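Q: Structure tokens for this one, please.
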Amino acid sequence: MLVRRLFLFLAATSFSLVLFHGANNPASARETFNLEDFFVGKTVGRGYFESGIAGVRRDFTVHVRGTFRDDVLTLVEDFVYDDGERDRAIWKFRKTADDRYVGVRTDIVGTAPVRVTSDGVRFSYVLDVRNREGETQRLRFSDILYKRPDGTVYNRARVKKFGFPVGKVEVVFRRRG
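A: Here is the predicted structure, written as tokens:
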């Protein structure tokens, strides 16, 4: 149960992705982009969560609907895991400058500062996750998104507890219609 809860929170915090050959190499994905240009409308992602510590890997598909109004990018993410489980996460990213956003979700602690650079879009946030005993575990997520030459967006999230790696989420997004 602990592994399942941890996975659900980890997967829901990240934009969905699929690992393609070479996707782990940031140098292969250096085209800059802005979030609203890619995510407004419909996108679909294929990805997975993996924790070597827990010995778990869960694959998922995520359907994202994005809107941009009054400098706020809203992303409604509907996850479908390969075992049939479903989840939903809603991000709101307020654009504060050409290269800056501030992200919020109801299940993160505080806000997620977002920075757009030539190396990609980077953001970090803290999530309190309850384990099966009802105890709260505070986890730090560090995401980076790259637009790749084929037009997809690769997202990698590293997850840490007390500064130690405990898992990762990887997703590749494609625009739909």
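A few notes: The first strand starts at residue 41 and ends at 51. Confidence is low (pLDDT under 50) at residues 1-29.
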